[in-house]
Write a structure and sequence with these properties.
three-stranded antiparallel beta sheet, 3 helices, single chain, alpha+beta, three-stranded mixed beta sheet
Length: 101
Amino acid sequence: MSVRKHKQIAEVEEEIDYPESDGQPMAETDKHRDLMFALIASLQNYFASASDVYVSGNLLLYYIEGDPTKCVAPDVFVVRGVAKHERRIYKLWEEGALQTW
């Protein structure tokens, strides 16, 4: 691939918007919501001493670079091998680690 074509592709990719919300309200029962929060908190507590384990839930996870329609928002997910810090979205190709459900 020529340098010029590679640069054009990179410029297009920079313009892609990966939304932080799908615009839909979180439609859960009280029990489901409470269990989701309890499970996230329990897993965060369990992995508290592991600096390379990220625990989250109900966060948009994009799995195909360049296609913001390819995403899921798991209730709970755990990723080993990535830094533990707050994220607004999760881009699988940038993190370099696969999630474990």
